[in-house]
Design goal:
Largest sheet: 4 strands, mixed
CATH class of the largest domain: Mainly Beta
Order of helices and strands: HEEEEEEEE
Helix content: 10-25%
Strand content: 35-45%
Number of helices: 1
Oligomer: single chain
Distance between the termini: 65 Å
Strand order of the largest sheet: 1-3-6-5
Number of domains: 2
Radius of gyration: 23 Å
């Protein structure tokens, strides 16, 4: 095998790497476009299909000592369940300070339930009455 065979193998390797990079880029774009629906704090009505996931985006600054919780009364577990949360410090939230917290939910089965989120420090009994606490209320319809 001479230098022409080596050059041909290098070209094939470069083509294979380029195709792999293109496939990774396409997968990344499709994943972002087909990700869960995102609702903002100002939206109070959420409609999703059974099995669908969605996120609620709220302004959050972990340094202020407050955190977001699903508050009582809890949503009907046959309709909706909380599946986690994540913070995106790079994305400016609707209020323009801190970062954006995404609270993740999964629609379990058909029905309608209320979802109450509470931004609190102690987050114990009576947390809704503590100074600086605030709540968000949503009506979630799965069907």
């Amino acid at each position: 095998m001479g230098t022409s065979g080596l050059a041909r193998n290098c070209r094939l390797l470069v083509i294979a790497v380029a195709i792999a990079a293109l496939l990774i880029a396409v997968h990344s774009v499709i994943s972002r476009l087909s990700g869960p629906a995102v609702y903002d704090a100002g939206e109070s009505e959420i409609s999703v299909a059974p099995g669908e996931r969605f996120e609620i985006r709220v302004a959050d600054d972990p340094g202020d000592g407050y955190r977001w919780i699903v508050a009582a009364p809890r949503p009907d577990p046959a309709v909706l369940k909380a599946v986690g949360s994540h913070l995106d410090r790079d994305e400016p939230p609707p209020s323009g300070t801190g970062g954006s917290r995404y609270l993740d939910f999964a629609a379990v089965g058909e029905g309608r339930t209320d979802l109450r989120l509470l931004h609190c420090r102690r987050c114990a009994e009576g947390a809704a009455d503590e100074d600086g606490a605030r709540s968000l209320n949503f009506r979630v319809t799965v069907g």
